[in-house]
Each structure stands twice: as C-alpha cells, then as structure tokens.
C-alpha cells in the first residue's frame, strides 16, 4: 500500500520489484487488497514490449481519515480519502480557546463530517488525528486572557471525548509537527533528508526532519522552536522566548491597533483600501521577527546539519514569500564560518497544513511501514 500510495500505480510485476517481494507473494497480497476494496485495477496498458500489463492503484474510496486542528484562534476539521483528497471541511473562529466550548465545537465538526459518509464508507474511516499546541493552558497572558483561564486544558481528556462521540481511534499530535508531516507527505518544499521546518502560527512552532522522517525526540521537544531564548537577560529577569518576538499574535495586535481586521489581512481579503497600511505593519513585524528567528535558525544549524529551512504558516502567500526572503537575508548576515549553507525556502501548503497533517497521519500510520518509528520517536500518542 505504501509503495502504491507513493507512486500512484504499478503493475503486479512492478510491485514485486518495488517491495522486494516474490512475484507470487505480491500477487497474493494484491488480490487480497483488491478483495478488501483498498486497491482497484485500471485499464490494461498496451503497445509496450511483452504482454499488456494491468496497473494496480489505490482505491480513493478504500479508506478515509478525519483531521481536527484545535488552535488559539480557530478550530478546523477535514475529511479526506485514501489519496489525501479533501471531501469536506469546516472552520470556526473564536477569540479564545476556552476548553469546554472549544472541544464541543471540534467534536460537532468531526461528527458533522462523518455524517456525510454512507454507512459502508463510514466503516472505512481508519482514525481521527487531533493537532493542537502543547501546553495550550500556559498561554493565557499572550492571548489577553485572565490568569488560569485555560487551566481546563490541563486535565481535559481530549482523545477520550472524541473517541466516545465518533467511535474512532484517536491520536494526538503537536500542531506544528502535524504541519511538518503534511509538507512531507503532500507538499513539495521538503526535498532533502534533513530539514528545519518553521510554522508561523498564532504562536511560532516547528518540526525536525532527520533521515527523511519526522523526529519528535524522546521528550517530544524537537522542533519546539518557540521556546528558543532570545536576547540577553535583564537584571533579575530570564531571557525572553522566540514565541514572544516571532509569533503572529504580535502582528494581529499591531493590525488591530491600526484599525485593520487581522483575519481579513491574514486571508488577503482586505477591500477597504487598507492594504498598503497592512503591508507596512507586516514589514515592521517581519523585520523584528526575522532578526530574532534568524539567530535561532543559525543556532539550530550549528547543532544539526540541516540541509534546508522551510517556512510556512497562515500568512497570505505574498507575505509568506516576503518573510522567507527576509529571513534568508537575515541568516546570510551572520558569521557562519564552519557551517554549511542551508537554503531558506517557503512551504507549499499554507494555512491548511496543520489540519491536513492531522488527517494524513492516521492514514500513514495504517499504511506506511515506518509507523513504529513515528511512535517510538514520540510523534504519535495513541489515546485509546
């Protein structure tokens, strides 16, 4: 299944070569997967040397998966088929991720998407992935909320709540790591075996790719770029963190102070002539953010020999490209003696990366041979 999902279609002989199976073993397995409805036969290919071959391909209706993203500003849900094609999606914005209403909204979205499937298709849903920030309860002040307003997240049984209402296996992922996974599976920006992935969300986050696999570390800290210290410590104070200087919530505050709707600006939907003012505010924010982020990037490159740095997020494409350009220039200004160059490039998925990754990872866990590596590295935490 993994080989076919990677290539699109193969004949039985090609499947045997691709997987290292004997021709007989490949044929037996393919026939069983055809019976199970996971694969389909395509029209015979004629006109080549030898006998006509019959390509085998994944059946788009052979399996489905749900993804939910719980964020600081919105909840999103998406239903995809075996090929990763979107079959339905929903998004609800809010001012703050208060635990009970946020979980209720997310569950309603997931249940609503499942209702679009026939009973037969519903039985083919392999799982539900939930992408959300780690320690979401710790960021009340940054979101302008009262202290302890988000404490309900500490003991919330998120996986259990989703499992009870949907009857599906539920797996919880860090949101930025899920975005990185989406870029690896469905995007085209990560082309090397090692990459530092940066996601510009309400709070900045990241992912680490090593040896072609998403790596989360023994304690799940790999890619937690928002926790990088910034600047010198003042008298009696600790250094700040990157999350306080390179996150989009700071840009949103500046836009609001200027009387500009942040959601419209971040979706490139400004129609009242305020585009130039929004551009100027963005440029000022990006200048400060890139100055701090570039230091974090160079520090990361000195620890792990990343081949590339990929930047994505829920910025409009034009702003994301300008940010990437600016970050690349800021990295170039550092003294990088002893370090190999690593290009800074824009991601290819954008705002949907986190929820798409959440939906794709259950499919990958079901049909990819490296699932054990993902689980062993802490990428997935099975909750039921």
Broad CATH class of the largest domain: Alpha Beta
Number of domains: 3
CATH architecture verdict of the largest domain: 2-Layer Sandwich
Helix amount: 25-40%
DSSP E strands, number: 15
Distance between the termini: 25 Å
Segments where pLDDT lies below 50 for 5+ residues?
371-384
Mean pLDDT over the full residue set: 90
Largest sheet: 6 strands, mixed
Q: How large is the count of helical segments? A: 13
> Structural class of the helix and strand makeup?
alpha/beta
Compact description:
This protein has 384 residues and is of the alpha/beta class. It has helices spanning 2-7, 12-19, 23-35, 99-114, 119-122, 158-166, 175-186, 248-257, 262-266, 275-303, 317-332, 353-367, 371-376, and strands at 39-41, 56-58, 64-70, 74-81, 86-93, 125-132, 170-174, 195-200, 205-210, 213-215, 229-230, 240-241, 308-313, 344-346, 381-382. It folds into three domains: 2-58, Orthogonal Bundle (Arc Repressor Mutant, subunit A); 63-173, ATPase, nucleotide binding domain (Nucleotidyltransferase, domain 5), CATH 3.30.420.40; 188-348, Nucleotidyltransferase, domain 5.
């Amino acid at each position: 299944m993994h080989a076919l999902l990677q290539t699109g279609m193969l004949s039985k002989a090609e499947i045997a070569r691709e997987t290292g199976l004997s021709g007989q073993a490949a044929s037996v397995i393919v026939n069983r997967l055809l019976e199970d409805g996971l694969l389909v036969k395509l029209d015979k290919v004629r006109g080549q040397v030898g006998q006509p071959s019959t390509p085998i391909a994944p059946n788009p209706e052979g399996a489905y998966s749900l993804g939910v993203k719980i964020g600081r500003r919105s909840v999103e849900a998406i239903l995809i088929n075996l090929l990763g094609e979107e079959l339905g999606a929903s998004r609800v914005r809010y001012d703050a991720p208060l635990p009970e209403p946020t979980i209720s909204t997310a569950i309603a979205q997931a249940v609503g998407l499942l209702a679009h499937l026939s009973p037969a298709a519903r039985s083919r849903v392999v799982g539900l992935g939930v992408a959300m920030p780690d320690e979401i309860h710790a960021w009340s002040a940054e979101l302008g909320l009262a202290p302890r307003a988000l404490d309900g997240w500490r003991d919330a049984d998120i996986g259990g709540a989703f499992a009870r209402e949907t009857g599906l296996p539920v797996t919880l992922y860090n949101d930025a790591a899920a975005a990185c996974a989406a870029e690896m599976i469905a995007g085209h920006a990560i082309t090397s075996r090692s990459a530092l992935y940066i996601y510009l969300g309400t709070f900045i986050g990241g992912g680490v790719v090593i040896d072609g696999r998403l790596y989360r570390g023994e304690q799940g800290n790999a890619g937690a770029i928002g926790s990088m210290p910034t600047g010198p410590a003042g008298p009696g104070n600790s250094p700040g963190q990157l999350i306080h200087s390179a996150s989009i919530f700071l840009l949103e505050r500046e836009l609001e102070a200027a009387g500009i709707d942040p959601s419209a600006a971040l979706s490139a939907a400004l129609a009242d002539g305020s585009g130039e003012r929004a551009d100027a505010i963005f440029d000022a924010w990006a200048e400060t953010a890139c100055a701090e982020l570039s230091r974090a990037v160079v520090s990361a490159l000195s620890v792990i020999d990343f081949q590339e740095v990929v930047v994505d997020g829920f910025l409009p494409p034009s702003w994301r490209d300008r940010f990437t350009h600016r970050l690349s220039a800021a990295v170039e200004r550092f003294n990088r003696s002893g370090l190999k160059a690593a290009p800074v490039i824009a991601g290819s998925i954008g705002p949907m990366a986190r929820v798409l990754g959440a939906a794709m990872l259950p499919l990958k866990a079901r049909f990819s041979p490296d699932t054990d590596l993902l689980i062993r590295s802490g990428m997935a935490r099975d909750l039921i």
